[in-house]
Amino acid sequence: ALVVVIDPGHGGIDPGAIRDDLTEAALMLTLGVELAEAINREGTMVAVLTRSADVFVPLADRMSIARAAGADVLVSLHGDALEQDAAQGASVYTLSADAADQAL
User: Fold this and answer.
1) pTM of the model
2) Are 47 and 18 in contact (CB under 8 A)?
3) How many angstroms separate the CA atoms of 104 and 102, rounded?
4) Cα–Cα distance for residue pair 80/73, rounded to 1 Å
5) d(Cα 29, Cα 15) in Å, to the nearest integer?
């Protein structure tokens, strides 16, 4: 089975972006848990969370969790916040052996 490690960004002492009463850490944790449950229900993949509570997990530990799980892919979840509501869309970053410094 394909192992998908889901990394809800921020957590604990690091709330991430804050908008009104919402924190990025709380929103991404909710999204991460729901995504993991959906992946595991599907049956052909296995989801592993780097955190399942509002705790801070250092980046090195997040990588260790992914490696220990035998991750085929790591999805790090983040949500940006702006003062104005004009922005929309998604950002996707990938790691490649052939680095590029341009947006494609």
Assistant:
1) 0.84
2) no
3) 6
4) 22
5) 11
DSSP class per residue in 60-94: HHHHHHHHHHT-SEEEEE-----SSS---------
pLDDT at 92: 75
Handedness of CA 88, 92, 98, 104 (dihedral sign): negative
Highest mean pLDDT out of 65-69, 75-79, 93-97: 65-69
Mean pLDDT, range 50-64, rounded to an integer: 96
What region does 63 belong to: left with phi over 0, alpha with psi -120 to 50, or beta? alpha
Query: Amino acid letter at 11?
Result: G
DSSP 26: H
